[in-house]
């Protein structure tokens, strides 16, 4: 592996498996997992001004405005642990966010290394969203059917209580998918034109998706 910083983006609709795969891949890549949704949820839990601003958008399944989101993620990326790169999950989600990221990296003589586009049909995503459960303490992601914890309601990793996200409901998922197709999917062409996008079939077992992602990164 080269020592050049690696900025890898996991692109994909809600519940396509970005968080699950990032947790399995970031050690292998030697870069931190930076998830915009996790950063928002951390702010929400701690009632910060940013969390209070973001809540109304998140509850409706809308995107939080670009200026708020870009500021939050850039602040995270400027920390020392991201010097060698990051595995980005859920950011960028708009062309404006992608341009801001590209500009910030270019200022440091860096660039996005690869974009992994996780492809899953919409009808599969609805069941993934409604069955998702997260650990209250470590954020690990489970699914009541596809990835159940060993003991119901309890995290395998740290014994934390599992909960359902407020936005993981049947009512919100339709809007989140619409928002993905309208505002985020243009990033597929955007990064394809730059020649750095690889499609990965996300509609297979979790371990098979991990293998496919590793293969798509094997030359880095
Ligand atoms: P995202 O971060 O893209 O929103 P998650 O990684 O949280 O998605 O996955 C969404 C839900 O689907 C979780 O409940 C997770 O356990 C489950 N899941 C993830 N990958 C798969 C897969 N390949 N097959 C079945 N279920 C999956
Ligand atoms: P999912 O796991 O379903 O892909 P996330 O956890 O990434 O969802 O995001 C949850 C919510 O947080 C989004 O519906 C949106 O309101 C907000 N959010 C996360 N990332 C972004 C982003 N890059 N731009 C705008 N809003 C975002």
Q: Biggest sheet, strands in spatial order?
A: 2-3-1-4-8
- In the CATH scheme, the class would be Alpha Beta
What is the total domain count?
1
CATH architecture: 3-Layer(aba) Sandwich
Helical residues, percent: 40-55%
Number of E-type strands: 8
Nearest-angstrom radius of gyration? 17 Å
Cofactors, ions, other ligands? adenosine-5'-diphosphate
CATH homologous superfamily assignment: P-loop containing nucleotide triphosphate hydrolases
The ordered string of helix (H) and strand (E) elements is EHEHHHEHEHEEEHHEH
CATH topology: Rossmann fold
Structural account:
This protein has a single domain (6-121, 178-216), classed as P-loop containing nucleotide triphosphate hydrolases (Rossmann fold). Helices cover 47% and strands 15% of the residues. It contains 9 helices and 8 strands. Helix 2 crosses helix 3 (49-60). The longest helix has 15 residues, at 170-184. The structure holds adenosine-5'-diphosphate (2 copies). The site of one adenosine-5'-diphosphate has 19 residues, from helix 1, strand 6 and helix 9.
Produce a short descriptive summary.
The chain has helices at 18-29, 36-45, 49-60, 66-77, 95-107, 122-130, 170-184, 186-193, 206-217, and strands spanning 6-11, 33-35, 85-89, 114-119, 132-135, 141-143, 162-163, 197-201. By secondary structure, it is of the alpha/beta class. The mean pLDDT is 96.
Record the SSE blueprint.
Elements: E1 6-11, H1 18-29, E2 33-35, H2 36-45, H3 49-60, H4 66-77, E3 85-89, H5 95-107, E4 114-119, H6 122-130, E5 132-135, E6 141-143, E7 162-163, H7 170-184, H8 186-193, E8 197-201, H9 206-217
Parallel strand pairs: 1-3, 1-4, 2-3, 4-8
Antiparallel strand pairs: 5-6, 5-7
The structure holds adenosine-5'-diphosphate (2 copies).
């Amino acid at each position: 592996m080269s020592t050049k910083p690696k900025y890898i983006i996991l692109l994909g609709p809600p519940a396509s498996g970005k968080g699950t795969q990032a947790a399995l891949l970031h050690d292998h890549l030697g870069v931190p997992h930076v998830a915009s949704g996790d950063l928002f949820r951390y702010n929400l839990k701690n009632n910060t001004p940013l969390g209070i601003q973001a809540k109304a958008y998140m509850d409706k399944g809308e995107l939080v405005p670009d200026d708020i989101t870009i500021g939050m993620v850039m602040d995270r990326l400027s920390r020392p642990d991201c010097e060698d790169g990051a595995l980005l999950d859920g950011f960028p989600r708009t062309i404006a966010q992608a341009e801001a990221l590209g500009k910030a990296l270019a200022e440091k003589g860096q660039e996005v290394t690869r974009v992994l586009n996780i492809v899953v049909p919409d009808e599969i995503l609805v069941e993934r969203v409604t069955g998702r459960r997260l650990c209250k303490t470590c954020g690990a992601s489970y699914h009541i059917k596809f990835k159940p914890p060993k003991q119901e309601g309890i995290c395998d990793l740290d014994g934390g209580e599992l909960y359902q996200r407020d936005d993981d409901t049947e009512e919100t998922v339709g809007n989140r998918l619409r928002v993905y197709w309208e505002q985020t999917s243009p990033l597929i062409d955007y990064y394809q034109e730059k020649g750095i996008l690889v499609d990965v079939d996300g509609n297979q077992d979790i371990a098979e998706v991990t293998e496919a992602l590793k293969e798509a990164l094997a030359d880095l």
